[in-house]
Amino acid sequence: MDKRTFLKNIGALGLFPLTNQLHYEEADSKLIDTADYNESDFWKLVRSQYNLHPDFINLESGYYNIIPKPTLAKQIEHIKRINLEGSFYMRNNRFKDKAMVTDQLSKLVNCPSDNLVITRNATESLDLVISGFPWEKGDEAIYALQDYGSMQDMFEQISKRHNVVLKKVSIPNHPLNDEEIVSIYKSQITAKTKLIMVSHMINITGQILPIKKICLMAKNYGVKVLVDGAHCVGHFDFKIDDLGCDYYGSSLHKWLATPLGAGLLYVDSKHIPNIWPLIADHEKNPTKIQRLSHTGTHPCSTDLSIIDSIEYLNWIGIKRKEKRLNYLKSYWLDALKDNPKIIINTPYDKKRSCGIGNVGIRNMKPELLAKRLYEEFKIFTVAIDYANVKGCRITPNVFNNTQELDSFIVAMQTLADT
Ligand SMILES: Cc1ncc(COP(=O)(O)O)c(C=O)c1O
Prior knowledge:
α7 links the parallel β3 (140-144) and β4 (165-169). By secondary structure, the protein is α/β, with parallel strands linked by helices. Helices cover 40% and strands 14% of the residues. It folds into two domains: 3-18 and 55-59 and 318-416, Alpha-Beta Complex (Aspartate Aminotransferase, domain 1); 74-311, Aspartate Aminotransferase, domain 2, CATH 3.40.640. The chain has a seven-stranded mixed β-sheet, sandwiched between helices. Pyridoxal-5'-phosphate binds at residues 121-123, 148, 199, 203, 228, 230-231, 251.
């Protein structure tokens, strides 16, 4: 597509003239039967269920997912109900409801509900395990330079606090095979290694790691594995029970598209008594996972909305969503990968990533690339410039269409030529 066609298309998308006016439409709470919709019409319908910002193309759903109108309508109902019932709700229903929601969530991620708690985000879930692990002086932990910063910060804190030795590995953007990745972690294990943290999906590149094989290897050495699955629940099809991990943490306001402030933590039964909670709870039975989930008073309407987000995901279907996200990522990635001025930081093998990808331009700093994409083309992304990743993270969502990706492709080709 040439630049003129691009500008015509972007105009047709309603991106110019710029307006700061957001159009909040009446939320449509119906999930209609789409059995006779073809694929293209189905995704058009999904797009229509979102209020999209008129001033820019949102290719940064990696931070969190905006929620579709049906979920938003339900969330507003929950907020109104809790505001009406007030303390009556909190005293009589809050914890019963939370248990019911946890039960539904455990069915979605496929693990027993006795091993699952709802948290406020992945940071809380993962930091709870890192900080609450029964560390002893001289113990060793392994994680990757490509892991999320807050978890690396917590490892540094426990290193200072408990004299834990930190071993940092680096994951190549284009691994040869699973064995290469497994051996990177394996090479750092010693008799003192207690815990490996590994990203199920590396957030800066979208690379999916072979968790099952890493867990199997670690088990042979008696090392526990904490999986950072912040980007995985609701993004692609997997079962926690299949992975063989010891702990799993995820955000739910990312790909399950719950309202902001929801996450989950899975802990294998044998480890529940050994983890110190972040906030102490009145549950004194050491085998009950609820002892790890004290939050104090917080906006519990978000917890209730998890049910509605699961309903919306099931309406789309996780396999269909996974296929669509992978298709959208491949759509732009395949169009750009042969340009010699462009660097792809995400594996080409479609099984090693899903919706998230990362791309850079040789000799252009990621920060400048993100700035120019936004200022000159009204495309919102995020710059990544650390470890072995120099580029912008590109994260389309179920509401994005290929016309928007065409705009992105033309923008990248234009910028690569300047
Ligand atoms: C890999 C990874 N882990 C953890 C987190 C933290 O998630 P939250 O901010 O929802 O706690 C993020 C957030 O982007 C992430 O990308």
